[in-house]
């Protein structure tokens, strides 16, 4: 293994899933400005996750729409227009 390639600034960090509201404490080098008081009474850096194993459908077994950026609506609109265009082309023939 190569020497001096791994970071040495590991520290305890709380990762919180914004969708499910669940959190877990682990060691990480992720940069963050936020902090949170953990169950043990100590204050730790906080990193917000958009999705994790607590909210991902593969792990939960239930389908949950997590659309924070409007991707689903954009997709539906794009393909609805494509279907209309195909219908208009068929009428011309």
Order of helices and strands: EEEEHH
What is the SS-derived class?
alpha+beta
Q: Main beta sheet: strand number and arrangement?
A: 4 strands, mixed
Estimated share of beta-strand residues: 15-25%
Q: Could you provide a short overview of the structure?
A:
28% of the residues lie in helices and 25% in strands. The chain is of the alpha+beta class and 93 residues long.
Detail the topology: elements first, then pairings.
Elements: E1 11-17, E2 23-28, E3 35-37, E4 43-49, H1 57-60, H2 71-92
Parallel strand pairs: 1-4
Antiparallel strand pairs: 1-2, 3-4
Keywords:
single chain; 93 residues; four-stranded mixed β-sheet; 2 helices; 4 strands; elongated
Describe this structure in words.
The chain has 93 residues and is an alpha+beta fold. The protein has a domain at 11-67. Helices cover 28% and strands 25% of the residues. The protein contains two helices and four strands; from the N terminus they run ββββαα. The protein has helices spanning 57-60, 71-92, and strands spanning 11-17, 23-28, 35-37, 43-49. Strands 2-1-4-3 form a four-stranded mixed sheet, with no helix packed on it. A hairpin with a 5-residue loop joins strand 3 (35-37) and strand 4 (43-49). The longest helix has 22 residues, at 71-92. The radius of gyration is 22 Å and the shape is elongated. The chain starts with 10 loop residues before the first strand and ends with a helix. The mean pLDDT is 82.
């Amino acid at each position: 293994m190569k020497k001096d390639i791994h970071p040495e600034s590991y520290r305890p960090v709380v990762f919180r899933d914004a969708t499910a509201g669940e959190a877990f404490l682990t060691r990480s080098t992720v940069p963050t400005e936020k902090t949170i008081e953990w169950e043990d009474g100590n204050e730790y850096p906080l990193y917000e996750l958009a999705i994790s194993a607590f909210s991902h459908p593969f792990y939960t077994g239930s389908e949950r729409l997590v659309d924070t950026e409007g991707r689903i609506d954009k997709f539906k609109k794009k393909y609805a227009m494509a279907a209309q265009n195909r219908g208009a082309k068929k009428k011309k023939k």
